[in-house]
Amino acid sequence: MRSCTSPTAPYVARILHMYNGDLNKVMEKGLIMGHEAIGIVEEVGPEVKDLKVGDRVIILPVIACGECFYCGHKEFSLCDRTNPSGELDQMYGHRLSGIFGYSKITGRYPGDQAEYCRVPNADLTCVKAPANVDAKKPVSLADVTPTAWHGCELTEVGEGDVVGVWGCGAVGLSIQRLAKLRGASKVYAVDKDAQRLEIARSFGMIPVNVNDHADPADYILSVEPHGLERGIEASGFRSTNSAAHATMRALGIEGDGSDTASAVIKATRKGGNVALIGDFFYSTNNLPIGMLMEKAITLRGGQLYAEKVSEICPMPQVPPLLSGYGSTEKKDGKRRKAPTAFTKSIWY
């Protein structure tokens, strides 16, 4: 499959963790990066049913089997069968799904920042896209937009909600706009980058500059006494605002900083919902677990359920792009070989 990624397209932050060396302990030389692309089908395996050579497709980042317990519950990023890594079993007690170009612990699958990409379980992992749409539009539907929708789903953003989003990168800005689409009355955009905050303001969000407020949670509570109904962390473990967490990370005392997660929990109202969408991998110190418990806050997280988005996203332009999902089947009670397609990369 020719995979088409774009250097101007909005990549999710989790790929930056690898380029910055934060995940060196689970990387290996020669691993091809990348897990958000569109492509042109060059070749299909004998068990691919829904794709043909020449089809233009969105390549989803999550590789799922479509058959296991978790896929049956449409929790595709928790798939039991597509990640042979034993490291995650040791780290988390369970393994997650395979992911393209995302380290040893997610299956060692070569990524799609390459001329060609092999796509396992292609009927489920690829989504047909129209040929007459500018490439920059469908490429964002591979990961950024589904991840943003996943964040809104986890926190159950709905009509009239007051929402706070920590992080104004591609995913954070998308969460903010989708929260508005889902009926949120106010969306606070929290970041320390003035340019990103200005973009958020231009979309109708309420910017909160961390550089102007030493404790952004206290500031939000000063203007929203009840707090946020929905708080979403979309910046990840590298976003340390305090000297304490920066020092602990530098010394290796903790793997993940919890400044932003702590602020989200504090700013969210009693009985509210919090989601962690920015990546966290290891352990952290000083997470306010007492505050989380006593305020009766529901905390959720996890990688996106990419294959589920077409069923839940109401945007009229998305369902035509996110259609054509297939399902894997068993033959004679035996698990069959994963159907595969190849794409060839085009860079814009």
Report on this structure.
The protein is of the alpha/beta class. It folds into two domains: 176 residues, Medium-chain alcohol dehydrogenases, catalytic domain (Quinone Oxidoreductase, Chain A, domain 1, Alpha-Beta Complex), CATH 3.90.180; 160 residues, NAD(P)-binding Rossmann-like Domain (Rossmann fold, 3-Layer(aba) Sandwich). The protein has 13 helices and 16 strands. Strand 9, helix 8 and strand 10 form a beta-alpha-beta unit. The longest helix is centred in the middle third of the chain and has 12 residues. Its cofactor is Zn(2+).
Question: What does this entry show, briefly?
Answer:
Keywords: Metal-binding, Oxidoreductase, Zinc. Its cofactor is Zn(2+). By secondary structure, this protein is α/β, with parallel strands linked by helices.
Overview features:
348 residues; alpha/beta; Quinone Oxidoreductase, Chain A, domain 1; six-stranded parallel beta sheet; 13 helices; zinc; oxidoreductase activity; zinc ion binding; oxidoreductase
Broad shape: globular
Per CATH, the architecture of the largest domain is Alpha-Beta Complex
Helix fraction by DSSP (H/I, runs of at least 4)? 25-40%
**Which fold does the CATH topology of the largest domain refer to?**
Quinone Oxidoreductase, Chain A, domain 1
Q: Using only CA atoms, what is the Rg?
A: 20 Å
- CATH superfamily of the largest domain, by name, is Medium-chain alcohol dehydrogenases, catalytic domain
Counting helices, strands and paired strands, the structural category is alpha/beta
Q: Strand percentage, roughly?
A: 15-25%
* Oligomeric state, counting identical vs distinct chains: single chain
Low-confidence parts: 5-10, 313-338, 344-348
How many structural domains can be distinguished in the coordinates?
Answer: 2
Number of contiguous helices: 13
How many strands appear in the DSSP assignment?
16
What's the mean pLDDT score? 82
Order of helices and strands: EHEEEHHEEHEHHEHEHEHEHHEHEHEEE
- Largest β sheet strand count, sense and barrel closure: 6 strands, antiparallel
CA distance, first residue to last residue: 16 Å
Domain Alcohol dehydrogenase-like C-terminal: 170-307
Keywords: Metal-binding, Oxidoreductase, Zinc
Family: Belongs to the zinc-containing alcohol dehydrogenase family.
Pfam families: ADH_N, ADH_zinc_N
